[in-house]
Design a protein that fits this description.
By secondary structure, the chain is mainly beta. It contains 1 helix and 21 strands. The strands form 6 sheets. The protein has a 5-stranded antiparallel β-sheet with strand order 1-9-8-7-6, with no helix packed on it.
Length: 235
């Protein structure tokens, strides 16, 4: 099996993708539900079971995510959909956002998690404030922090299968190295206790803007959404 096929298999099992082709495969929290998904949708029943659906190759597919434990490919909610469409200001890459009567939020985000890979459809569920990423570029060094509801994002998060995976900050550059859009530069481990990161920007990585994206942490019931920030090159 090729390295790319191996990583895709791991993702479908609920583990992590490699963050960038140039590194040794850092991994992430949250859930990758599908790749290159068309017409994504999300339903939630009164028990807290979430049904993610999308079109792939002309076929409608589903993924059932229970309140705890592993998700079920092909599964569907048994009761009525109690969620309503909503919007969350500041949520990046949002495709679908829903709110249930208890005030909890559910979302699907779509972005390229693996450098050179497909666009992943990412599932999250949470309550309260969003994760945040703050970053700044000074003297060709990109530094910043990532936190969720007052706590730094760092260390590991468990997948639905119980495997612990490590949190990284994924750094992209805009219109650099011949790319028309965003290009992945590197993934760096987030450090505790504040979720800090630092990247020395090489001359070859010169760009007008940089983007830092962090996958949301999994904390019990909560699968926090992914967070991102775009900063200018600075001085």
């Amino acid at each position: 099996m090729s390295p790319a096929s191996w990583w895709r298999t791991i993702t479908l099992m609920g583990l992590a993708l490699a963050a960038t082709a140039g590194l040794a495969g850092p991994a992430h929290g949250s859930i990758s539900a599908a790749s290159n998904a068309q017409r994504p949708a999300l339903r939630v029943d009164a028990r807290g079971y979430a049904e993610v659906s999308w079109t792939e190759g002309g076929t409608r597919k589903t993924l059932l995510i229970p309140p705890s434990g592993r998700y079920l490919p092909g599964g569907k909610i048994q009761g009525a959909d109690v969620s309503k469409p909503t919007t969350v200001s500041g949520l990046p890459f949002a495709r679908v956002v829903r709110r249930t009567p208890d005030g909890r939020l559910w979302a699907l985000q779509a972005w390229q998690l693996q450098a050179g890979g497909p666009v992943d459809l990412r599932f999250s569920r949470w309550q309260g404030k969003l994760p945040t990423v703050e970053a700044d570029v000074t003297l060709r060094k990109l530094t910043g922090t990532a936190e969720f509801q007052g706590k730094g994002i760092y260390g590991t998060s468990p997948t639905t299968a119980g495997t612990q995976v490590t949190h990284y900050a994924l750094v992209d550059c805009a219109r650099c190295q011949g790319a028309a859009g965003w290009k992945r530069l590197i993934g760096v481990r987030l450090r505790g206790p504040r979720g800090t990161f630092a990247v020395q920007l090489r001359p070859a990585w010169a760009a007008p803007r940089y983007r830092v994206t962090v996958t949301g942490p999994n904390r019990g019931w909560t699968y926090a959404p992914d967070a991102s920030v775009v900063v200018p090159a600075g001085a």
